UniProtKB/TrEMBL annotation:
It comes from the Eukaryota. This is ATP-dependent DNA helicase PIF1. One of its GO terms (molecular function) is helicase activity. It holds the Pfam family Pif1_2B_dom. Keywords: ATP-binding, DNA damage, DNA repair, DNA-binding, Helicase, Hydrolase, Isomerase, Nucleotide-binding. CDD domains: SF1_C_RecD. It comes from Caerostris darwini.
Length: 310
């Protein structure tokens, strides 16, 4: 009932080229977990979420959600604390830039970190082209490493790579920078090429030093293999619904407005919080949450089939 794969197929759909073969998904037996661990204790919230995930919200459910619509940004819901969850990347970028600007206005020292890119297996000569012109602009095509990152002590960041699974340092984990560690025992950024390590407080997962990493990926226009060295971090006062899938937060301001565009987005966004007390809704478009529109109808049909097959 969560987000379907990007440009991919549902796991329960048999690919066209595999139609003559055994339908492996149909060999599985359903074991349905029914105890809600994330929102345990908040039965009202659980009831709203269970109705939303299958497209059965009632007027009573909408009344509960409407009470959470607020533009207030005080205490735990201030722009510097509570996570904003949006459906689109441009909404996320705008909010992160807004928070960054608020820190700049207060005189916070902010460092601009630039990635170090190179071609390591060139298939063609660059000639008069700049290296930047053959490096993908999409962070998802550069191993999750950004081209530019602005950081400071106190910045809220998200890991974009699995660093150490045993310590909880995985893609999507969030924390606050508590120290910037410059190379060669420097006390400040000396060269624009400097990429420091940072100490991050990940809350329950403790404080850990995150170092720059290198990731290889295909360059554009068949120029070969590129490599980027960079901190595996992005600013995270706001995040997309997709990046939040699997995460849990205590406080969040959630967008449920007209720009929701994919099945499951509203459910995933709301269900990241532990309780109704931990959410505020920035914008609510009720038409996006009614009927089977907000849920993955294919998955819902398959769930019904699985239950009936027991």
């Amino acid at each position: 009932m969560q987000l379907p794969p990007v440009r991919g197929h549902q796991v329960f759909r048999q690919p066209e080229h595999m139609k003559p073969a055994t339908h492996l998904w149909r060999q599985f037996r359903l074991v349905e977990l029914k105890q809600n661990m994330r929102q345990q204790g908040d039965t009202t919230f659980i009831d709203v979420l269970n109705a939303l995930r299958v497209g059965e919200l009632t007027s009573g459910h909408f009344e509960i959600l409407l009470e959470k619509v607020s533009t207030g940004t005080s205490n735990e819901f201030s722009i510097e604390k509570a996570l904003r969850i949006y459906p689109t990347n441009d909404q996320v970028a705008r909010h992160n830039e807004k928070v960054l600007q608020s820190f700049e206005d207060k005189g916070t020292v902010i460092y601009t970190i630039k990635a170090q890119d190179q071609l390591i297996d060139a298939k063609r000569n660059l000639g008069n082209k700049d290296l930047d012109s053959v490096i993908p602009n999409d962070i998802n095509k550069t191993g999750g490493l950004p081209e530019v990152l602005k950081i400071f002590v106190g910045a809220k960041v998200m890991l974009r790579s699995n660093i150490d699974v045993s310590k909880g340092l995985v893609n999507g984990n969030m924390g606050f920078i508590t120290e910037i560690i410059w190379t060669n025992f420097r006390r400040d950024q000396v060269y624009t090429e400097d990429i420091p390590s940072v100490r991050i407080n990940f809350g329950s997962d403790g404080a850990h030093v995150i170092k720059p990493i290198s990731i290889q990926f295909p360059a554009k226009y068949s120029y070969g293999t590129a490599e980027r060295r960079m901190l595996p971090l992005i600013l995270s006062w706001a995040s997309t619904v997709r990046k939040m899938q699997g995460c849990t937060v205590d406080h969040a301001v959630i967008y449920l407005g007209s720009r929701l565009f994919a099945a499951g987005q509203a459910y995933v966004a709301l269900s990241r919080a532990r309780s109704l007390d931990g959410i505020r809704i920035e914008e609510l478009d009720c038409s996006k949450l009614t009927g089977r529109t907000p849920c993955n109808s294919e998955a819902l049909d398959e769930m019904i089939r699985l239950r009936n097959s027991l």
